[in-house]
Design a protein that fits this description.
145 residues; 2 strands; single chain; 2 domains; mainly alpha; 6 helices; 57% helix; Multidrug-efflux Transporter Regulator, Chain: A, Domain 2
Length: 145
């Protein structure tokens, strides 16, 4: 492969050029070889790594975790226990977010159902938003996950 330009890499992987440069800057993507004219030239390994990063981001993994999984992938003979633990924790965080969103949905549905569609001064939605004590459940956002 003669190497892909950054624009070709972006088109092939669906990752924007500034994002590719950022991934290089933070060390997630190896610095590419350069042409005689100084143009970046990416190889098949770069395509694979970028596909991995993009897919992991789409699944909600954050950058430090992606970096850790990429480092683990460099030793293919080791146990996948560490990767399993990472994915299991991510799954638990997703479950916590789903539970939180389900609770929020139920509370907002209750507010809407309680609205008499009259005048603003009697609006049940605005009353509940103004007094958290009128909520059926505590739905304060858990910043932990």
């Amino acid at each position: 492969m003669r190497g892909l330009s950054i624009g070709e890499l972006a088109r092939r992987t669906g990752v924007k050029v500034p994002t590719i440069r950022y991934y290089e800057e933070v060390g997630l993507l190896d610095a590419p070889d350069r042409s005689e004219g100084g143009q970046r030239r990416y190889n098949a390994r770069s395509v694979g790594r970028l596909d991995f990063i993009r897919h992991a981001r789409e699944l909600g993994f954050d950058m430090p975790v992606i970096r850790e999984m990429m480092a683990l992938s460099l030793d293919p003979g080791q146990s996948c226990e560490a990767v399993d633990a990472i994915a299991t924790e991510h799954l638990a965080a997703i479950d916590r977010r789903i539970a939180h969103l389900t609770s929020l949905r139920a509370e907002i549905a209750r507010m809407v159902e309680g609205c008499a569609h009259g005048e603003v001064r009697e609006c049940r939605i605005l009353q509940v938003l103004g007094d958290h004590g009128q909520c059926a459940e505590d739905h304060v956002i858990n910043r932990q996950g």
